[in-house]
Amino acid sequence: MENIKAFLLDMDGVVTNTESQYEAFWDRLKDKYGLKMDDFKHRVKGKRLKDIVSEFFSFLPIEKQKNVANDIRTYELEEMVYTPINGVLEFVKSLKKSKYKTALVTGSLRIRAQKAMKDIGLTDYFDILITADDVTKGKPDPECFKMGAEKLGVLPSECIVFEDAFNGIESARLAGVEKIVGIMTNYSKEELTKVATIAIPDFEGLTIEDVLLKIK
């Protein structure tokens, strides 16, 4: 596809294999602070830390809200183990050698994104990082993907986005991205293809040419 100029990838559940760890952590967190919401671990996917606290824990006193934020930061930076999604290292490294521009677009803080990329060996493999530190609104707002395209000097319609969460897919769609690859980390192929262009289990054996052919 000659009009595609950039690949924009979400981090958790797309580049890093963290979703099962997160789900267990979100269950512990809601129980600790008395949040009564059975689907919390699904609704929280793709959201920034500050939005998680303000949207789901606003019933708590301010000091308790600060404790929630601290618990999340401590877990993400000191306890979580970062490993790559199957095949993603080879795929991102092939992008680095190609003509295509790349961005990591995540709702995480920059310090966490940098740590995760260092831990899995992808430091400096993305042209730019768009993180929670860079935007005023988190996913599903389109700001992050619009910013990613703009900083790469391309249009959203010239990008392919890789996402695993509905919030992220909606963010990309609202930004004007027309080609979205759903990664089946959290949801089935049937669920993802309702909102994404195509759905794949991971990056194992995947080439740039494969993506361009599949997404036509």
Secondary-structure topology with pairs:
Layout (H helix, E strand, L loop, with lengths): L5 E4 L9 H15 L6 H4 L5 H8 L5 H18 L8 H10 L3 E5 L4 H11 L7 E3 L12 H10 L6 E5 L2 H10 L3 E5 L5 H4 L5 E3 L7 H7 L2
Parallel strand pairs: 1-2, 1-4, 2-3, 4-5, 5-6
Helix pairs in contact: 3-4
Description:
- The structure is a single chain.
- This protein is α/β, with parallel strands linked by helices and 216 residues long.
- Helix content is 45%, strand content 12%.
- The protein is built from ten helices and six strands.
- The protein has helices at 19-33, 40-43, 49-56, 62-79, 88-97, 110-120, 143-152, 166-175, 189-192, 208-214, and strands at residues 6-9, 101-105, 128-130, 159-163, 179-183, 198-200.
- Strands 3-2-1-4-5-6 form a six-stranded parallel beta sheet.
- Helix 3 packs antiparallel against helix 4 (62-79).
Annotation keywords:
10 helices, 216 residues, six-stranded parallel beta sheet
Task: Give a quick rundown of the structure.
This protein has about 220 residues and is an alpha/beta fold. The protein has helices at about 20-35, 40-45, 50-55, 60-80, 90-95, 110-120, 145-150, 165-175, 190, 210-215, and strands at about 5-10, 100-105, 130, 160-165, 180-185, 200. It contains ten helices and six strands.
Sketch the topology as an H/E string, one letter per element. EHHHHHEHEHEHEHEH
Integer average pLDDT: 96
Strands side by side in the biggest sheet: 3-2-1-4-5-6
Structural class: alpha/beta
Number of strands: 6
Number of helices: 10
Shape: globular
Q: Outline the biggest β-sheet.
A: 6 strands, parallel
Measure the end-to-end span: 7 Å
